[in-house]
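Field reference: "sequence" (input) and "structure" (output). Example, Neogenin:
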Amino acid sequence: WKGSSVRTFTPFYFLVEPVDTLSVRGAFIILNCSAYCEPSPKIEWKKDGTFLNLVSDDRRQLLPDGSLLINGVVHSKHNKPDEGYYQCVATVESLGTIVSRTAKLTVAGLPRFTSQPESTSVYRGNSVILNCEVNADLVPFVRWEQDRQPLFLDDRVFTLPSGTLIISNVTDGDGGLYRCVIESGGSPKYSDEAELKVLPDPEVPLNLVFLRQPSPLTKVTGQSAVFPCVTAGFPTPVIRWMKNKEEFTIESSERFLLLAGGSLEISDITEDDAGTYACIVYNGNETIEAQADLTVQAPPEFLKQPANIYAHESMDIVFECEVTGKPTPTVKWNKNGDMVIPSDYFKIVEHNLQVLGLVKSDEGFYQCIAENDVGNAQAGAQLIILEHDVAIPTLPPTSLTSATTDHLAPATTGPLPSAPRDVVASLVSTRFIKLTWRTPASDPHGDNLTYTVFYTKEGINRERVENTNRPGEMQVTIQNLMPETVYVFRVVAQNKHGPGESSVPLKVATQPEVQLPGPAPNIRAYANSPTSITVTWDTPLSGNGEIQNYKLYYMEKGTDNEQDVDVGGHSYTINGLKKYTEYSFRVVAYNKHGPGVSTQDVVVQTLSDVPSAAPQNLSLEVRNSKSIMIHWQPPPAGTQNGQITGYKIRYRKASRKSEVTESIGGTQLFQLIEGLERGTEYSFRVSALTSNGTGPATDWISAETFESDLDETRVPEVPSSLHVRPLVTSIVVSWTPPENQNIVVRGYAIGYGIGSPHAQTIKVDYKQRYYTIENLDPSSHYVITLKAFNNVGEGIPLYESAVTRPHTDTSEVDLFVINAPYTPVPDPSPMMPPVGVQASILSHDTIRITWADNSLPKNQKITDARYYTVRWKTNIPANTKYKTANTTTLSYLVTSLKPNTLYEFSVMVTKGRRSSTWSMTAHGTTFELVPTSPPKDVTVVSKEGKPRTIIVNWQPPSEANGKITGYIIYYSTDVNAEIHDWVIEPVVGNRLTHQIQELTLDTPYYFKIQARNSKGMGPMSEAVQFRTPKGKVSLLSSFPSLPLTGSNSPHGSPTSPLDSNMLLVIIVSVGVITIVIVVIVAVFCTRRTTSHQKKKRAACKSVNGSHKYKGNSKDVKPPDLWIHHERLELKPIDKSPDPNPIMTDTPIPRNSQDITPVDNSMDSNIHQRRNSYRGHESEDSMSTLAGRRGMRPKMMMPFDSQPPQPVISAHPIHSLDNPHHHFHSGSLPHFYFPVVESVRNTPSTDTMPASSSQTCCADHQDPESATASYLANAQEEDSGQSLPTAHVRPSHPLKSFAVPAVPPTGSTYDPALPSTPLLTQQGERVHSVKTASIGTLGRTRPPMPVVVPSAPDVQETTRMLEDSESNYEPDELTKEMAHLEGLMKDLNAITTA
């Protein structure tokens, strides 16, 4: 080839391009520009698209390297001649022109503050913000001063992009006067001064608050961003960051920096940094969080730049240009510095530039210029057009012209072909022409000739070219022509030596376009109903003759099945469409020439309707005796007919079909129906709701509530039996339920397999007792296992094995099995299990499970009726049962999980009767949550030897929801005080005991405890009361020093145990003192009798009807009141095997329920006692008993010891000739003996069923009453009849001897009263009397009778109470009590030794 004539490409490009610049008024600015080329290019500048005349400009001048210098930037409110977009233009004569990127020159405005710093104070160690906000263009000119000295910035003291100053971890040295300064040329502008005061650490915790939260940012790649996260609070919080809800370690990249105080700085931003950033602040007491989005923009970048191209005239070429950026850049093209205007011959297609039918003037430099909001860039290439006789050195990869020999170098020199003959247009259409010709005269065979067709519009000098496909071919079809246009064609033949002569030009006119209608305007569609849509349109504007009819095309969106209908008018209604479905419509008008141009598609959705199918997979789960949980799935997708807004549940008792209850719930797919009757069968049905109404309901399905609330805290026990009966291909399994019927059984799991029972598992209902395992192999050894299960898990299995019969065996199944409930077994060919199961933790109670299904196509689109079952469980406790849920998508949101708990998940797929095995498991631990229950078992005890110190013990909350990091104990003397007035004692870590010192003696305190974890504080426990001990040991308080091992008393104080000899001495001493007290009381009582005492009958009647026997009380003669000395005996005390007997104190019961009728045959029930009432213990001295109570009963000390729970019994003996022994329950005096009871093994007490009798004594509305019962087979020598006995039960451990409280002022005692009701009048609180009994361990004696008369009438009671003090000589009392006190002091000395 003629190498000398092939011109080479000339390197011509920019070395430096101008960049965006920020300036201030009066400054000097240089916009750099430098271009490379040989010869040197001429540089010019454009501003805002117009060339600058720099010759006559005294402020702006061109520097030798091509840069632009602007002297003294001019900028005012109304005159901004220098601000704008600048572009550098380089030109080389005879070669071409290139332009640089555009650069923006911004001039900062006048210095002005939009906000200024204000004086403030801050706690040491906290953070502080000083505002100084200015316009964005002024930020680079802002600096700060402290006490008028420049402030040094670091990662503790830094500014935000707005100019605001943040100081973290404030120290004392940060105090002072602050101001910010703008230095943007001229004199600096100062803000107001603000004083910052630094305060010492606060003593009390301060709530966490945000001083500055992160705000959304938009940044360009390569820039830096600061997300402020500035908080105040005490203790000083810890701050961590999350990105897109995932933890990310700031240390993992040098580009991330955690500034002091917790703000996040990201430098050299990349597009991967985009996302949501959340700052989480925690200080041990509470957690707060805030989040903001980072949007990253990127200036345009070239993925593919245009390449230099060689071409011949008439060829079609394309310059390729591929760019990226965010937002997506726009692309325009320049040729020799001027923008290319798209036309028929210059087309921009997907950023590429096509140049069609090249002419010589198309030579030059082409530039692709890409631009978006954050930048612009340019890249260029050169086009050289060679002469036709110069071969193209290399075929451009971007040529649009098909390759032919005209691009190849001629092999040799020789004769060229003559012109092709007889060029004709054999086919002329509106848009294409087919040309044919004959071979040139010089080469009649023409087998090796190729042909090139040149064509152009008449009057246009730009020729285009089309080549034949293969040598010898003598026809070509020219496409993409314009209708009714004249084209000029010529054909050139080419052989191995080169192209020959051209044929004579041939003029051909394309056919005119047939006059078809244009598109119909104003096409509109609207839905009339759930199944019909009306479409309307107008007559086409270019009808080109009469419109004969229209064709309306429509199809369901997302399908490709288009239907059509002929329409005569301008509207049509299509019926029979699917409900709540999108359809697209278009219209084509027809005239006599045929169909016209189609309209654009319009899309409209049919209206919604009630669902046309019922919900699916309705299932019931009996929760307990009063509630049933219902689960279901939505109706099939095509039948919902709208947005499901909720579900209607209807239920009724199976026995009463008319009474139906309705419940409407939300869109959740489950509902707990509560308040049902126990042991009752209920039927349920569910229907779906849309805004249009209710769809069809499911069939009724039934379940029966449990007869009683069975235990479901543990798994069921083993089934009581399992029987198997093998047949040829099946085995009949039968069983009986577990013997323990008190544990919930929700069903049975049958496992079976050859040699191992784990191959297949079937689950059946809890009512089922038979099951036939089908599809087995004949003559095979199967192992079968049966387990009962409930919501806690599966119980212990029973195993059985069986060999199926051989094929020849045809014996039938037993008749009783034929009607057994049948459950289908899985198809023997299972599906593939789901893969790639992943658990994404979303919150403290929600995890999203996702998976893939390899049996689906690659796009994972589900088109059949398969569904997936997700199961999950936690391993704590170990026997937790799996929970399951069904879904028809490839993900599932598992909710209602426990916080801070590790769960395992697996998935299976079911299609028809085929199911897969369970997938591989995925694990996920839910996030922590604040504790949702208070600490448990809070107890308070005194510290031994330190009465002002108490020890608080507790157990962790049952719902800790995370690792417990501490507790807070609140205590107060006022239980009703506001919680912020209580005293706080923090406990760090997970300790479960704490001492509190320096409390006030003899004061009731109330205690509450609160637990905390990393998420915050939980709820408080109920208040627990504790009264601190008195300072001095008094007569009545000396007994608590006795050992109280196992005591239930909330006031008990542990002491060192005494040896058994000391214990014996103490108990004997107590017994002796008790006898002495009783004797003294009795002696005083026998001295006085009252005449009217004998006349009174009981004033109170029992509510249960005992007034019928009112007359009987006349027969009851009060016997002489004296002490049966011969019956008063002190049994020897057996040595207790337990060296620490328990002492119990007994408060007076509040009402009749607390005193229980019992006889000797009920001894076994005596252990079932409960502390039914604890009143205020009375601490009065013992002398009150003798001095204040006018009691003269005939008494018998009950020394019955019925181990391990003795009973104090008062026996009223009525007239022995009365055969009925009916008593007014109010007629028994409230008489109690102060005695000591030694009991073993009484850690807790329960109450027996109480009597129903109620009494009304005095004017008290809730009186006490002693209920009487018969004592069967009493062993008394002188009594042949059963004696009624009133039993008083000890209800909690004894703290000290105690006596009734002194009556309140206003109530006095009557000397004639045989007994005084221990009731405070006028509705005051009932005081309790501590009583006890001394009994002999290990021996049984019936209680001794105590004879008591009836209580007087109410009216007389008041009269008799008037002169109580005058009936006893104080001297006698004083003498006796002095003697008693001497004895008690001796006893004190013994116990304290």
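Residues 734 and 770 are 4 Å apart (CA to CA).
Confidence is low (pLDDT under 50) at residues 402-410, 811-827, 1033-1058, 1089-1367.
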